[in-house]
């Protein structure tokens, strides 16, 4: 599998990533280039390696072979907490007792970002993902796709630090490195009339 961004524009690069688990080849020479600010959805059947690839990018699994770079820097030796990558899995990983705003703001508060800056970043990220007006709602009150978008916002930490020069005027999407997989919506049963 080889999916490439236009030449020279790749920010996140996977080159020939391979991984076997329990004697079974899960990923076999996967190469992927993602441009900075690009949004990518990984789709495929169960067992095709989507979550495994995300775990490698996040630092939770180490590949048997291959390279993983962000902005040209090899990040394979870095532990998960030093990679500055947010990943949203199907479980959404939202705190059920916090509002959508507070879920997205959580990582920024942990990094002791100024309150006004947190408000600007969180509201900007929620706007980009179509969640304006849902700031004070609880996760359980949102439809599944909106919960997924809120979890993606929280994983992105509403603008993680950029490894290059940080310019406050760049949009949140330009400074966000995250991958988002959406589970399929369940079929809705129609009531007989």
pLDDT below 50 for ≥5 consecutive residues: which ranges?
A: 158-188
Spatial shape = globular
The helix content, as a percent range, equals 10-25%
**Span between termini:** 48 Å
How much of the polypeptide forms β-strand, as a percent range? Answer: 15-25%
The main pleated sheet reads as: 5 strands, mixed
Tally of extended strands?
7
User: Which class best fits the helix and strand makeup?
Assistant: alpha/beta
Question: How would the blueprint of this fold be written?
Answer:
Layout: E1 2-3, E2 10-21, E3 24-35, H1 50-58, E4 65-70, E5 73-74, E6 86-88, H2 100-110, H3 115-128, H4 144-156, E7 178-180
Helix pairs in contact: 2-3, 2-4
Description:
By secondary structure, the chain is of the alpha/beta class. Helix content is about 25%, strand content about 20%. A 5-stranded mixed sheet has the order 1-3-2-4-5. A two-stranded parallel ribbon has the order 6-7. A hairpin with a 2-residue loop joins strand 2 and strand 3. The chain is globular.
In short:
The chain has 193 residues and is of the alpha/beta class.
Features:
193 residues; alpha/beta; globular
């Amino acid at each position: 599998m080889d999916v490439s961004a236009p030449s020279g524009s790749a920010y996140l690069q996977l080159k020939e990533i391979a991984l076997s688990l329990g004697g079974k080849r899960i990923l076999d020479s996967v190469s992927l280039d993602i441009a900075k600010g690009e949004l990518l959805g990984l789709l495929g059947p169960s067992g095709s390696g989507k979550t495994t690839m995300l775990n490698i990018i996040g630092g939770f699994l180490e590949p048997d072979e291959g390279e993983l770079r962000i902005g040209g820097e090899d990040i394979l030796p870095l532990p998960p907490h030093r990679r500055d990558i947010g990943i949203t899995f199907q479980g959404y990983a939202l705190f059920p007792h916090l509002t959508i705003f507070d879920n997205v703001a959580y990582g920024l508060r942990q990094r002791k970002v100024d309150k006004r800056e947190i408000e600007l970043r969180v509201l900007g990220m929620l706007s980009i993902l179509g969640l304006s007006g849902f700031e004070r709602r609880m996760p359980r009150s949102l439809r599944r796709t909106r919960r997924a978008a809120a979890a993606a916002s929280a994983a992105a930490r509403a603008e993680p630090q950029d490894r290059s020069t940080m310019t406050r005027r760049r949009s949140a999407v330009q400074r966000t490195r995250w991958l988002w997989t959406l589970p399929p919506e369940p079929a809705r049963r129609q009531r007989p009339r």
